[in-house]
Each structure stands twice: as structure tokens, then as C-alpha cells.
């Protein structure tokens, strides 16, 4: 593949069809064929050439402002971007910093923090993980116990994080810590950035149901973090975290996974003759209608973010909707697949390979991570509908 040059253009000026065509051409040229439609998340080593190709092109952060190295895409172009990545079957990038930390630093970081961290993120030079959940503080994140005490020009951090995606391979971690125990839970939390090579940090991988070790426990034993690595004000991290979680629920509310799964479901239905079953066609029609409605809601929320509108608690609806639709689609796939659908690896139906069980397993955890759907429903009940606690 020839050397990739950074694209200096404002891609919003291109007609949608031309922008889509350029994306497809670049995907065909730069994305490794053997990593298309994987039945697992690619490793850092596997996906790094694609990460570097996007960074070299200047196309790694489609939603970041152009002044910070992003593409500055409009909502329409943003949706086309991810639609084409999904259509091509690209593997998930190590994207915590791209989707979560980067926008937060742009909004709340100091000039020094922006200068130090944003270029390394948008150029793909540093991998980040997110230190939020703890053994006793998952969906109820405000009850976290990992503590940071000020000692001269450092915080001293002690505690534990869990379900930390990509931690075994990350260079840095952004984490929430408790810095004040004399105030209400949500009022005494701060937001820190820590180098994963700092003495006292221990990472222990956790194997999941699919036999992969994407998650890990992260232990902090008297870890010294410079005061300069505090983002925002001390004890005011919860406000920033809530805005970040709102952005995360947009990501988790994307129709991308369900759109791919329903394509596979329809392919499977053609191979198994299910379209002759009126009851199946009725269920498929309902799933398709739900997917269209999800897409419309998703575009509305993304548009709010693009316009700088602060998201309210109603964004929790998007995460519940997307993750449960994904589960319903994949459950239908398993039903159609019969005994062949129970195999862990992709199975062949005549001349077509379909990853039935993998899709089902992929759909299982999203209703738990990012704040369980039970918690999201509580948020909607209290903060949107005004129901009693």
C-alpha cells in the first residue's frame, strides 16, 4: 500500500455520494481483508495498521473539531462514516479516548493537557482505557471507593477498578477517584489521568464467556499521580463524568450493531426458507421498524451533540433501546439456526458463512456495561417521568 497523506479538506463540502465513495475506496485500499467481519474484537497488534492508516489520513476522529485534529464532520457525514465502516466489517478500534476522553478534554482540559494528550490520541500514538467500574460500584458509580489523597504535588491513589476494557494493552488510564469523604457521594469525586507504567499499578486480565481477555482488573497501590493530571476542579469530577456518560450512551445507542445483525438474520432466513413462515415475516417486520425508529432517534441525539446541546437524562432511552433490540435480533438468529446455530464459531449454510452464536454472545453483555439497563430505566423513571424513588 502506498504512503498515506493527510487529507486537508473539509469533508463537509463534499456531496454525500462522493464522500461515501471516497470512504469505500479508502477502506478497500487500507483495511486488512483478513480482519473483516471478525467474530471477536481484534487485538491491538492486529488493528494497529488500520489505526495508523486512519491517523495518517486525518480520519481517525470524525466528530472532533478540525482545530484539534478531527474531521469536524456534520451529523450527516458522521452517520455515513460509521455506516461505511460497519458495511465494510471493520473491527473495533481502541476507541475510549476517541469517543470519551478526547471530547471531555476539549471541553474541560487545561491548555497544557490539550497540548500533551490530544495530538497523541488523534495520531494513534497512545492507547487509553477507562477506570470507572469497581467491584462494589458498577452501575451505581457514585459509590466508588478508589481514593486519591493529595501529597505535595501528587495524588496518592489506592483502590481497584474492574471490567476495564483494553487495560492489558493501554498506555494511559482515565479514572474517577474519591477525593473527599466528608460530602455527599457525588460531590467528592475527581477525574484523573494516570500513566499505566506508574509504579503500583497492577493489571490482571479477566477471561470472558467467549474465551477472550479484553477486560481486566486494575489495582492501585500507593500510585502517585501528578496534580497536573487532574482534569477540571478537585471534587467536581462527577459533573464531567455525567456528560461523558451521556456521550457514551450515544455510542452504545448506535444502530450499527443491530443493522449488521438484521442483515445476517435476513441472509439466514433466505438460506433456511424462513420467509415462507408468515409468523417469522411478521417478527422480522417489527424488528425492521424498530431499527428504523432507533436510527431516527440516534440521529437526533447525535445532532444535539454536534450543536453543543447538553444531553439530558432521556438519552438513557437510546442505550436501552439499542442494546435490547440487538438481543432480540440475535435471539431470532439462534432460533432460525437450529442445531447449527449453537456452534461457537461461524457455520456454513451452503455457500454462505454466518456467525450466528457469535452475534448472540456479542449481544449479551451490552445491556450490562455502560450502566445496566435496569439503572437506565431508574434514571428515566425518576429524572424524566418524575416517578418516586
SSE order and pairing:
Blueprint: H1 16-30, H2 44-57, H3 75-88, H4 96-108, H5 111-122, E1 128-131, E2 147-151, E3 154-161, E4 172-178, E5 189-195, E6 201-206, E7 215-226, E8 230-231, H6 237-252, H7 256-272, H8 278-306, H9 316-337, E9 347-349, E10 352-354, H10 356-363, H11 373-384
Parallel strand pairs: 1-4
Antiparallel strand pairs: 2-3, 3-7, 4-5, 5-8, 6-7, 9-10
Helix pairs in contact: 1-3, 4-5, 4-6, 6-9, 7-8, 7-9, 8-9, 9-10, 9-11
What report would you give on this structure?
With 389 residues, the protein is α+β, with helices and mostly antiparallel strands. It is globular. It has a 4-stranded mixed beta sheet with strand order 1-4-5-8. Strands 2-3-7-6 form a 4-stranded antiparallel beta sheet, with no helix packed on it. The protein has a two-stranded antiparallel ribbon with strand order 9-10. The protein has helices at 16-30, 44-57, 75-88, 96-108, 111-122, 237-252, 256-272, 278-306, 316-337, 356-363, 373-384; strands at 128-131, 147-151, 154-161, 172-178, 189-195, 201-206, 215-226, 230-231, 347-349, 352-354. It is 44% helix and 15% strand. The mean pLDDT is 88. It has 3 domains: 11-93, Orthogonal Bundle (Butyryl-Coa Dehydrogenase, subunit A, domain 1), CATH 1.10.540.10; 128-236, Butyryl-CoA Dehydrogenase, subunit A, domain 2 (Beta Barrel); 253-384, Butyryl-CoA Dehydrogenase, subunit A, domain 3 (Up-down Bundle). The chain is built from 11 helices and 10 strands. A hairpin with a 2-residue loop joins strand 9 (347-349) and strand 10.
Amino acid at each position: 500500500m502506498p504512503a498515506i497523506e493527510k487529507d486537508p479538506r473539509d469533508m463537509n463540502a463534499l456531496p454525500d455520494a462522493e464522500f461515501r465513495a471516497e470512504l469505500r475506496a479508502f477502506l478497500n485500499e487500507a483495511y486488512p481483508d483478513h480482519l473483516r467481519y471478525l467474530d471477536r474484537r481484534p487485538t491491538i497488534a492486529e488493528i494497529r495498521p488500520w489505526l495508523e492508516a486512519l491517523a495518517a489520513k486525518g480520519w481517525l476522529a470524525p466528530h472532533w473539531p478540525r482545530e484539534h485534529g478531527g474531521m469536524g464532520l456534520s451529523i450527516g457525514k458522521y452517520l455515513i462514516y460509521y455506516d461505511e465502516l460497519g458495511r465494510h466489517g471493520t473491527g473495533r478500534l481502541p476507541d475510549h479516548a476517541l469517543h470519551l476522553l478526547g471530547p471531555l478534554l476539549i471541553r474541560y482540559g487545561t491548555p497544557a493537557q490539550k497540548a500533551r494528550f490530544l495530538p497523541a490520541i488523534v495520531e494513534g500514538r497512545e492507547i487509553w482505557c477507562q477506570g470507572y467500574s469497581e467491584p462494589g460500584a458498577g452501575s451505581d458509580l457514585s459509590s466508588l471507593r478508589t481514593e486519591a489523597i493529595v501529597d505535595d504535588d501528587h495524588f496518592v491513589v489506592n483502590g481497584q477498578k474492574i471490567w476495564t476494557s483494553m487495560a492489558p494493552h493501554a498506555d494511559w488510564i482515565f479514572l474517577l477517584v474519591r477525593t473527599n469523604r466528608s460530602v455527599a457521594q457525588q460531590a467528592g469525586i475527581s477525574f484523573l489521568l494516570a500513566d499505566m507504567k506508574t509504579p503500583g499499578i497492577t493489571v490482571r486480565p479477566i477471561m470472558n464467556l467467549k474465551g477472550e481477555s479484553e477486560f481486566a482488573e486494575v489495582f492501585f497501590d500507593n500510585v502517585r499521580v501528578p496534580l497536573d493530571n487532574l482534569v477540571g476542579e478537585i471534587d467536581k469530577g462527577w459533573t464531567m463524568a455525567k456528560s461523558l456518560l451521556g456521550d457514551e450512551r450515544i455510542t452504545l445507542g448506535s444502530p450499527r450493531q443491530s443493522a449488521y445483525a438484521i442483515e445476517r438474520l435476513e441472509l439466514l432466513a433466505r438460506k433456511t426458507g424462513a420467509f415462507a413462515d408468515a409468523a417469522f415475516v411478521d417478527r422480522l417486520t417489527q424488528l425492521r421498524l424498530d431499527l428504523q425508529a432507533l436510527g431516527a432517534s440516534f440521529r437526533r441525539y447525535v445532532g444535539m451533540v454536534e450543536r453543543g446541546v447538553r444531553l439530558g437524562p432521556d438519552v438513557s432511552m437510546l442505550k436501552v433501546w439499542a442494546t435490547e433490540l440487538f438481543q432480540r435480533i440475535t435471539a431470532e438468529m439462534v432460533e432460525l439456526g437450529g442445531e447449527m446455530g449453537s456452534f461457537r464459531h461461524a457455520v456454513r449454510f451452503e455457500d454462505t458463512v454466518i456467525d450466528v452464536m457469535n452475534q448472540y454472545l456479542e449481544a449479551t453483555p451490552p445491556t450490562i456495561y455502560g450502566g445496566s439497563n435496569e439503572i437506565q430505566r431508574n434514571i428515566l423513571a425518576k429524572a424524566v417521568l418524575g416517578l418516586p424513588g
